[in-house]
Amino acid sequence: MNVLAVDDSRTIRDMVRLALGQAGIEATVAEDGQHGLEVLDSMTPPDAIITDINMPKMDGFGFIEAVREQEQYRGVPILVLTTESAQEMKTRARAAGATGWIVKPFDPVKLVNALKMVTGQ
Amino acid sequence: MDPMAEIKASFFVECAELLEGLEEGLLQLQDGDEDPETVNAVFRAVHSIKGGAGAFGLEALVHFAHRFETVLDEVRADRLTLTQDAILLFLKAADVLSDHVTAAREETSVPSGKSDNTIQELEALLDIDANESNLPEAEVVADFSPMMLSLDLPQNDAIPPIGTQFRFITREGLVESGNEPLFLMRALAELAPFQAEIDTARLPDFDNLSPSKTYVDWTLKSNEHVDQSDIEAVFEFATDLCEIVFEEQTQIDFQNNPQIVHPPQTEHRETEQQDPQIVTDSEAIEPSKTITINEATKPKNLPKQPVSTATVRVGLDRVDRLVNLVGELVINQAMLSQSLSEIGLVSNTSVASGLEEFQQLTRDIQDSVMAIRAQPVKPLFQRMSRIVREAAEDTQKKVRLYVEGENTEIDKTVIERLADPLTHMIRNAVDHGLEKPQTRKQVGKTEEGTVVLRASHRSGRVVIEIEDDGAGINRPRVLKIAQDKGLIPEDANLSETEIDNLLFMPGFSTAKEISNLSGRGVGMDVVKRAIQSLGGRISIQSTPGQGSVFSISLPLTLAVLDGMVIEVAGQTMVVPLSSIVETLTLAEADVQILDQGTRIVQIRGSFVPLLDLAEEFGYRDAGAYPENAVVLFILAEDGERYALVVDLIQEQRQVVIKGLAETYGHVPGVAAATILGDGKIALILDTADLIGNAGHTDQNKLSLAG
Questions:
Q1: How far is B573 from B553, CA to CA, in rounded Å?
Q2: Cα R_g (chain A), whole angstroms
Q3: DSSP codes joined into one string, B533-598
Q4: Residues B11-31 pLDDT 10s
Q5: pLDDT in tens, A59-108
Q6: CA distance B274 to A74
Q7: Torsion of CA B663, B664, B665, B671, to 10 degrees
Q8: CA B558 vs CA B456, B572, B576: distances in Å
Q9: Which chain B residue has the Cα nearest residue A102?
Q10: Contact at 8 Å (CB) between B411 and B323?
Q11: pLDDT tens digit string along B139-187?
């Protein structure tokens, strides 16, 4: 499995990469929404995307919308990984096209299970 | 290192950057920046710290960051007005946050009083706007507990049925959000074998069918008992896009039913990705061609490559090794030149020009390597803004810090060792330099005092200035203190500069002056020593009523220095060029001997104490220096001049500094050593130390000052 993880925090990116790596999932990382779109363009289409909400340049909502606008990524599962848990935020993320919502700090096993679940693997 | 520990270490590095950005953003807001992105950036910095801290279970840090973030979020949402007072409080909170980060890194804790008080002050901001803000405490707590599911489910009977059955009713948006029903059912099948019955009642006519919508519902049955919570967990991400309705169980005949959902298999992906387009024969070549081109133009396997940035992180030890090697190269080059000139090198030959080029290259490499160690003073200056804030709070003064030339670069070690003296000087500027707001008002100044921290390059050195617009040095008072303490004779007649320099005398700062701020066990004499040990100089300019400027002049690097190669009683030594004011041939007629045996030399009408280097090092007796000896006039940091007698000046050149302290400890009068062109080792002298250690007491020195 190949996953794109977008987060402006290097720590979180490292942790996601570590968590996924231990489960044998390849993670490609990007630092913000805009960067995420660029990386998405240059990589083999990911099986799933993980994104933060609060990011500079382009936030998670904008990123999810932009991904969903692209025909080939309509069905790619997008998990939001954030410290936010307000319903309003979740609703916005859902409207943008998010598949699921995981609250940080995350449990590596749960994250991997969620990824396997949404990708049907 | 264990990967988690490694990530944790990098988290703290990231925190430092975030804190820097936080402070920078707040300072921009303080200056009237109204860009919402600045507020966002400030919020994100705190948010990211909280996020990372949560991952490592750093609870105190998370707790504080969370409260801080909550208030910042109100600002971000325009529910809280950003007043200057609020910004000041945020700056203070940023300092406390920084303390929390440090405490977390060092596994200590922040005094709870300070942290709690700041939290209270922060939340007091919210109370003002309480009628508008809606932040129930429960929300705060819920943020870090696992997400709760809110499904409207009928309560089941107390006795669990043997089997499980529920309806899975899809709503619009399920598939669009990437929640593929098939995958959900696969996850379900991991729990137990389920049988799916499709309900196509909602399926419209083919003409009205939209491919991106779901029109079917399912009834899922299992003969095994599955906990409702486990089923809910499967549908966790889709709670708002489907309905799960648990039903009374009926027996299912698995044997005869082929529609059982089996544990994960991957046949689905192929069908999903199949291109539904029908391609006619004539067009068939076209698309495949496009694909080939696409494949070729696509950068190969980019994803694995981390995105390149303009910086490379390199361990300092590697850089230092390079610096050392370049030092060796410089020495070798010098030795080569020397031996070639000894065997009689003819100029204008290819060897000579090659050697010249080699010399130039060596110099360039050396500069480039030094540039690697050079860093902007910005982080150091940024730290000072906190010092100013704390000092202002402690002294009840209003202070604004202005920073100039923060991109000026200087050797990393110099920056590190500059932090303490600079901190002390900044505190002094606020504590002693600036007046109280009322006093300032009375003399027609703005209540808010100004401290300027400035860095610039000046003739191959870096000059750092700390300027305040306070009352200036109170010279009569300084003189009085020095006299009272017996630092100078009662009748001493000192110039303004000399009085100012009394501040640097050991024993000048007193216990009486040890306030909250200055009482950190550092006097200005210690500051001066610290600057000197960096090869720097410090000086004061002060105008009564208008303020003072403390200037620190520092070498760009600690690895090389411009030196004067001299000879003393057959020994070759190096005197740092920066300490030499002037050189003269010594005329015996100008030398006078005082009662105590002290020799002085008259130069341009004033008397300067004479110091024979060879005598100081015990090579010869007093006054036994040769005829036509040379004197180097050394400017001591207090503005006093000394005449250093040497036998002869060889040359002026750049030398590579080789530390001795590691092997020999501190040798009085010796700063370091170097290797000269002939391969011999020469000591680099520490003139300030020499003068301090010389038999000449302050008494003598000052009695001459008039």
A1: 24
A2: 13
A3: HTT-EEEEEEETTTEEEEEEEEES-SSEEEEEEEEETTEEEEEEGGGEEEEEEPPGGGEEE-TTS-
A4: 888 888 889 889 889 988 888
A5: 899 999 999 888 888 888 999 998 877 788 888 888 888 888 888 778 88
A6: 15
A7: -100
A8: 18, 21, 12
A9: B147
A10: no
A11: 333 333 333 333 344 444 444 456 788 888 888 888 878 888 888 888 8
Spatial CB neighbours of B642, under 8 Å, sequence gap ≥ 6:
B608, B609, B610, B611, B633, B634, B636, B687, B691
Task: Report DSSP state, residue B156.
Answer: P
Q: For strand B560-568 and strand B648-656, is the pairing parallel, antiparallel, or unpaired?
A: antiparallel
Q: In this structure, which amino acid lies at residue B96?
A: V
Which tokens in the block code for residue B636? 């001591």
Q: Which two tokens stand for residue B171?
A: 């709503």
Cα separation, B631 vs B356, whole angstroms: 32
Chain B neighbors of A94, CB-CB under 8 A: 173, 177, 240-241
Stretch B574-583: mean pLDDT: 84
How many residues are present in chain B?
A: 706
Which of B 292-321 lie inside 8 A of A, CB atoms? 298-299, 301-304, 306-307
- Quick check: pTM over 0.90? no
ipTM for the predicted complex comes to 0.79
Chain A residue numbers with beta carbons less than 8 Å from the beta carbon of B41 are: 56
Beta bridge partners of B653: B563
What residues in A contact B301, CB-CB < 8 Å? 44
